[in-house]
Design a protein that fits this description.
The protein is mostly helical. The protein has six helices and four strands; from the N terminus they run H-H-E-E-H-H-E-H-E-H. It has one domain.
Length: 153
């Protein structure tokens, strides 16, 4: 019998309410940013997009559930996850490569998972017969990773 080593973490009511209030606005801003980033994939353009997105979004003041352009959510905070909050994506090229090389039933190891973007993407790609092993040594990011796992089932 395999044990789940991650503790169950419940999101507080304030985290859920905050996330739901922002979700529509985040989705709109993220869609525009992702479209523009696909046309202008230069680092300086991403920097500009983050600044523009910041004009339309309130400052990230605490942990919240943030949608991504990939269809899964991440638990983000001011110390970790600001790119996801502002843009809805990060490391587009890496995620595209993952889509091309990971198959259903594969095993994916994510060392240094942070908030879990790569792990969440891998979980969608490996499917129910695959396995994702996520490791994060930094305490706050580990807590965000556990919440991301919980949020996405």
């Amino acid at each position: 019998m395999e044990r789940n080593r991650s503790p169950q973490v419940d999101l507080s009511i304030s985290e859920l309410e905050h996330s739901e209030r922002l979700r529509r606005r985040l989705n709109k801003v993220h869609s525009v940013c992702f479209f523009l980033a696909s046309i202008f994939p230069f680092r300086v353009c991403l920097y500009a997009l983050k600044n523009i997105a910041g004009l339309f979004l309130p400052p990230l003041s605490g942990r919240l559930v943030c949608p991504t352009v990939y269809g899964f959510d991440l638990c983000v905070s001011p110390r970790a996850g600001k790119n996801y909050y502002l843009l809805g994506f990060y490391e587009i090229g890496t995620l595209q490569m993952m889509k091309e090389i990971i198959s259903e039933g594969d095993v994916f190891v994510d060392a240094g998972s942070s908030e879990g973007q790569m792990s969440a993407m891998a979980a969608t790609l490996v499917g129910p017969d695959g396995k994702v092993i996520a490791v994060e040594p930094q305490k706050q990011r580990y807590e965000d990773l556990v919440k991301t796992i919980h949020i996405n089932g």
